[in-house]
Amino acid sequence: MSEHIVSSYDQDLEDLRRQIAEMGGVAEKMMADATVALVRRDTGLAEKVIASDKRLDVLQREIEERSVLLIARRQPLAIDLRETISGIRVSGDLERIGDLAKNIAKRVVAIADQTQPQKIVLGVEHMSDLVQEQLKDVLDAYASRNLDAAHDVWERDGQIDALYNSLFRELLTYMMEDPRNISFCTHLLFCAKNVERIGDHTTNIAETIHYLVTGETLAGERPKNDASNYATVTPGA
Amino acid sequence: MSEHIVSSYDQDLEDLRRQIAEMGGVAEKMMADATVALVRRDTGLAEKVIASDKRLDVLQREIEERSVLLIARRQPLAIDLRETISGIRVSGDLERIGDLAKNIAKRVVAIADQTQPQKIVLGVEHMSDLVQEQLKDVLDAYASRNLDAAHDVWERDGQIDALYNSLFRELLTYMMEDPRNISFCTHLLFCAKNVERIGDHTTNIAETIHYLVTGETLAGERPKNDASNYATVTPGA
């Protein structure tokens, strides 16, 4: 970190970092709670997740406004400019992660009184556990400016996509086996898709860390393995 | 628009406006083409939509970088600062709209060889037509700084959500009627969800216009009518 003559500038950057850390904490908790609520069909916990989203929206707006004022007032260069831009980007991703966790929580409310076998939910839980680990790792990497750790998260996105793809087929198969599973499994499909997209936002944050540390855009295609957009399943096949 | 002593500053803002108009044009075309491709199961057109998305990504990155440099170099105040921030926000929404249209196009490829009744697709087409109109109106409102037109778009988001909600139930019913519809209808469900989310981004742009023109955040809850997160359908009910 470079040193500044104007110490209140350091304070501004410090505030920005603190607010992003707070957003990260809220987003992590929302995702963990949404997953527990889904597994236990706990509508009370789901409602708490839905309520938490407001805080994330407020924080994102604040970060965006403060960052822009910071840029306008201080005219930061190089690493400091990148840090401010990165703050805007990361807060955008964390806000979206909160939205997606909130959407999972809303679906928990929808399916709360359904009694489908728990096994179906466990695939989504497993996928969510992996993505939560990714999110934790990428937030740590952001706080410590750890490029290797960020690259590691970036590489792992393909695993999540492959898992989503297999879960997509599995859920379609359950739906074909018994029409009573359709409504439930449709909500689970959207939950799984939300988890997969949270994984994408985690990968975005990894790319932002790369930009923050190196000043360059991460080259190359993402290690995508999501073929579910192209997948179909045939009944009885 | 305020007048500037430094005329190259006006040029910078003009460039920003032009790039956003270009992004808007690309996003509109992607959405229109993705919808036609879906209705006609035209995989060639779908592939074109998928390819267009790269241009949108490049433009968004450019707008973001140029806007931030503009803020750092020129220290704009009031309306000019808001215009630059608005440019960043709108380009982010247009980039997401392109992603969602691309996702519809990918699903067209998945369901191209399926022969389900065309009627099922028409509901998604109708919803897409409405959202395309919203997108056109909001881009016009942005270009002309027309606050009334922006508010009108903002108010109409509830209609789209209500339509999505009824389509969601309809698609679930088709799935329950015949398991051979499940794979196809699942892709259509995701297409409809994508269209609904494009509607959300259109509403975001309307909110940005409000901020751009008035300097204030649009107060009040969005006119949401999307109950589908909470919806379930029972077979034979």
Automatic annotation (TrEMBL), chains A, B:
InterPro entries membership: PhoU, PhoU-like_sf, PhoU_dom
Location in or out of the cell: Cytoplasm
A Pfam family recorded for this sequence: PhoU
Entry keywords, A to Z: Cytoplasm, Phosphate transport, Transport
GO biological process: intracellular phosphate ion homeostasis; negative regulation of phosphate metabolic process; phosphate ion transport
Domain PhoU: residue ranges: 20-108, 124-208
Family assignment from sequence similarity: Belongs to the PhoU family.
Listed name of the protein: Phosphate-specific transport system accessory protein PhoU
Organism, as annotated: Methylobacterium gnaphalii
